[in-house]
């Protein structure tokens, strides 16, 4: 541009231009004339100039430079406008969002990553699953930076290279505290809570569930508020140490040492002498202990709640062990009743709310129910609906993560979902003193019978009627089939579905008999 100004300011350069050239550049273009075809120099020379050209001064050159500069500026603005228009016409690049990290604390028997594969939060954020056990992680928490987790996973006996990440959400499926040495992970629960990590169940409730007597004390409050008829809690006595274990009101009793689960640390005591022996063991363990009256059990009851889904199970011991969760046992799904739902809904309000929980009870041979325990999100999944339960946990976590991390609330269904036993597998049982209040449970045969039992025809409705004698466990297969068939011919079963179920069981029994 400076070069043009110098050239146009040169008097010799302007003098050599044709006559009227400078005036034509300054003259406005007449309307209707085409600007695409420039006039030839010959035509311009034939037109008389309207005014003389100043050849000595630099005024005309400066005006020329200003005109050229204005034209260049207009062309540059037009070019930039065209470029912007072209840029707007191009499709916008997709925004790449950082995935949300879900830390699952569970053993390696369940691969939680496959349940979250392809799922997104609010259709935008992918979910990256990091799974490990409590023993495989360590962490550090900060006020402003949150929680940073270091994880070293063992697979196939070899240690995988450690990874570090910042979890956005946590699912805890393991017990955070055990009486076994080296399995106290309450410090990790504190660290996650210190870092402000959201979880299912809440870290506040996870920490409170690290002591069974502490949880039982919350159940005592429900017992007093609801009453023994609606919430039949088994009586329990707490001893902070062995020094107060002098005597107990009645025998037999069940002694539970410290915070143990899965049948560990539980001893059945028949008399005072055995009770004193257990006292010495408690002194060596250096822990608290609880005692409760032993209930002669007919079967165990478990009512579980995952979000808005309810299931009820009945577990009957086959091996004869007083612990139904030890040895061989038959697991059956039973109908969900309002009585059972009241139990689990009341317990689900503990410690600010439990998204996943289960209530365990014992149905005694006296016809009464006794609630003995509440489990949190670390509860084992049982029965033939394990895959369905894992899918329910997955959907529950996705909804919870969207609510906590994105502020998106998924509307929950107004009605609760109850998985009832299949109609084809139901069995009716005789009424007992407590079944009139809670409804006669409808049994559904489950596939969780222990493989060590080759044949188990199962109880039939006639065997539990008035005056019926319990079959001896020493009966062979043919005797069991004969008794079942005879009871059916006597007409003790009047319900059509029960008859059909009995015939089906007989067919399976005959098939098992002749297959050996």
Q: Structural class, from helix and strand content?
A: alpha+beta
Largest sheet: 8 strands, mixed
- Could you say which overall geometry the principal axes of the C-alpha atoms support? elongated
Count of beta strands: 22
| Low-confidence spans | 33-46, 48-58, 423-494
**Quaternary organisation:** single chain
If you average the pLDDT, what whole number results? 75
Cα end-to-end separation: 107 Å
- Fraction of residues in β-strands: 15-25%
The number of distinct helices, counting runs of at least 4 residues, comes to 14
Query: What would you report as the Rg, rounded to the nearest angstrom?
Result: 42 Å
Assign a percent range to the helix content: 25-40%
Word description of this protein:
With 516 residues, the protein is of the alpha+beta class. The chain is 32% helix and 21% strand. It has 14 helices and 22 strands. Helix 1 runs antiparallel to helix 5 (59-89) and helix 13 (477-489) packs antiparallel against helix 14. The relative contact order is 0.08. Mean pLDDT is 75; it is low at 33-46, 48-58 and 423-494.
What does the secondary structure layout of this molecule look like, with pairings?
Elements: H1 2-9, H2 11-15, H3 21-26, H4 41-46, H5 59-89, E1 100-105, E2 120-121, E3 125-132, E4 137-142, E5 146-151, E6 154-155, E7 158-159, E8 163-165, E9 169-172, H6 186-194, E10 198-200, H7 203-208, H8 212-226, E11 237-239, E12 253-257, E13 266-269, H9 272-285, E14 289-293, E15 297-306, E16 309-317, E17 329-334, H10 338-347, E18 356-364, E19 369-375, H11 386-405, E20 417-418, E21 426-427, H12 435-438, E22 443-445, H13 477-489, H14 496-515
Parallel strand pairs: 1-3, 1-9, 9-10, 16-20
Antiparallel strand pairs: 2-3, 4-5, 5-8, 6-7, 11-14, 12-13, 12-14, 15-16, 15-18, 16-17, 17-22, 18-19, 21-22
């Amino acid at each position: 541009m400076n070069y043009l100004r110098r050239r146009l300011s040169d008097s010799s350069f302007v003098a050599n231009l044709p006559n009227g050239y400078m005036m034509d550049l300054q003259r406005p273009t007449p309307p209707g004339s085409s600007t695409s075809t420039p006039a030839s120099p010959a035509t311009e020379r034939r037109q008389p100039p309207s005014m003389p050209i100043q050849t000595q001064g630099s005024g005309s050159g400066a005006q020329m430079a200003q005109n050229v500069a204005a034209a260049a500026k207009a062309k540059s603005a037009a070019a930039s406008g065209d470029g912007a228009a072209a840029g707007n016409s191009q499709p916008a690049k997709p925004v790449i969002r950082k995935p949300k990290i879900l830390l699952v604390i569970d053993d390696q028997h369940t691969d939680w990553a496959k349940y979250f594969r392809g799922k997104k939060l609010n259709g935008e954020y992918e979910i990256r699953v990091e799974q490990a056990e409590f023993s495989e992680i360590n962490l550090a928490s900060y006020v402003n930076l949150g929680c940073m987790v270091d994880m070293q996973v063992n697979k196939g006996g070899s240690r995988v290279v450690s990874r570090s990440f910042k979890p956005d959400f946590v699912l805890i499926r393991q017990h955070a505290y055990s009486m076994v040495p080296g399995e106290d992970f309450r410090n990790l629960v504190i660290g996650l809570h210190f870092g402000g990590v959201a979880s299912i169940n809440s870290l506040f409730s996870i920490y409170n569930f690290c002591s069974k007597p502490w949880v039982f004390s919350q159940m005592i409050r429900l017992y007093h508020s609801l009453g023994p008829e609606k919430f039949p809690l088994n009586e329990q006595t707490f001893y902070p140490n062995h020094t107060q274990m002098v005597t107990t009101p009645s025998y037999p009793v069940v002694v539970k040492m410290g915070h143990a689960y899965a049948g560990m640390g539980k001893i059945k005591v028949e008399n005072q002498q055995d009770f004193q022996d257990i006292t010495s063991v408690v002194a060596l363990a250096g822990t608290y202990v609880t005692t409760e009256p032993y209930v002669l059990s007919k079967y165990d009851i478990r009512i579980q709640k995952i979000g808005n889904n309810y299931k009820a199970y009945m577990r009957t011991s086959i091996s004869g062990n007083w612990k139904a969760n030890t040895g061989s046992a038959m697991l059956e799904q039973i109908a969900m009743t309002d009585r059972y739902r009241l139990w689990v809904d009341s317990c689900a309000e503990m410690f600010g709310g439990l998204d996943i929980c289960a209530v365990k009870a014992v149905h005694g041979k006296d016809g009464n129910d006794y609630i003995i325990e509440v489990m949190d999100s670390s509860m084992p999944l049982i029965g033939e609906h394990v895959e369905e339960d894992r899918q329910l946990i997955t959907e529950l976590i996705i909804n919870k993560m969207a609510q906590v991390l994105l502020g998106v609330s998924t509307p929950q269904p107004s009605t609760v979902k109850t998985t009832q036993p299949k109609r084809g597998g139901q069995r009716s049982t005789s009424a007992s003193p407590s079944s009139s209040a809670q409804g006669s449970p409808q049994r559904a045969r489950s596939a969780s019978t222990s493989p060590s039992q080759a044949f188990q025809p199962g109880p039939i409705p006639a065997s539990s009627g008035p005056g019926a004698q319990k079959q001896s466990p020493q009966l062979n297969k043919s005797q069991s089939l004969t008794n079942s068939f005879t009871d059916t011919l006597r007409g003790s079963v009047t319900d059509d579905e029960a008859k059909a179920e009995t015939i089906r069981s007989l067919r399976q029994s005959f098939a098992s008999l002749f297959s050996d």
